[in-house]
């Protein structure tokens, strides 16, 4: 529960820094998000926070790391920690289209961490704010305890 209390604080900090930060090609971002997770005919909802930094590799191309904390809204689940990265096209004032991949710890007791990959779109909302829509596929664990699953994420954040 303590992690969930940090989301509004991080979003507020990001917004405050956005107001004072100059525009630049490289940017740091913080966000809050919610995901629908589908697996084996089951559905779970999760909420989380993420932070990352995008580096300009060439005109219109970026890549960067990301860390996240997510909590499934089901009883007896753990907070999942994710580490990954994204690479994509900077579409200028409209937003960013990207591919994403990473590793995430498992939200269930006894589950093994697994790899994920997907794609997303981050749309600029103005004044340093953005909304995003992202799809990720999580691979099944090697021991078969954790099934493969799919997640659709909607997020809101600040970049500065």
Helix content: 10-25%
Low-confidence stretches: 13-24
CATH architecture: Beta Barrel
Determine and state the CATH class.
Mainly Beta
Mean pLDDT: 84
- Total domains, how many? 1
**What characterizes the major β-sheet?**
8 strands, antiparallel, barrel
Element layout with pairings:
Elements: H1 2-20, E1 27-39, E2 42-58, E3 61-72, E4 79-90, E5 95-104, E6 114-126, E7 129-138, E8 149-159
Antiparallel strand pairs: 1-2, 1-8, 2-3, 3-4, 4-5, 5-6, 6-7, 7-8
Question: How does this structure look, described?
Answer:
By secondary structure, the protein is mainly beta. The chain has a single domain (2-159), classed as Porin (Beta Barrel). The protein has one helix spanning 2-20, and strands at residues 27-39, 42-58, 61-72, 79-90, 95-104, 114-126, 129-138, 149-159. It has an eight-stranded antiparallel β-barrel. The radius of gyration is 16 Å and the shape is elongated. The protein starts with a helix and ends with a strand. The model is unreliable at 13-24 (pLDDT under 50).
């Amino acid at each position: 529960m303590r992690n969930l209390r940090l989301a509004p604080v991080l979003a507020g900090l990001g917004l405050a820094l956005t107001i004072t930060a100059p525009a630049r090609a490289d940017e740091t971002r913080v966000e809050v998000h919610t995901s629908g997770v589908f697996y084996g005919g089951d559905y779970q909802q999760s909420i989380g926070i993420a932070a990352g930094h995008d580096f300009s590799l060439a005109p219109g191309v970026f890549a960067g790391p990301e860390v996240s904390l997510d909590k499934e809204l089901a009883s007896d689940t753990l907070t999942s920690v994710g580490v990954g990265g994204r690479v994509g096209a900077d579409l200028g004032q409209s937003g960013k289209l990207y591919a994403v991949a990473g590793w995430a710890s498992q939200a269930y007791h006894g589950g093994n961490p697994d790899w994920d990959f997907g794609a997303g779109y981050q749309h600029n909302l103005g004044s340093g704010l953005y909304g995003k829509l992202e799809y990720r596929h999580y691979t099944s664990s090697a021991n078969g305890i954790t099934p493969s699953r799919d997640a659709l994420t909607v997020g809101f954040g600040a970049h500065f």
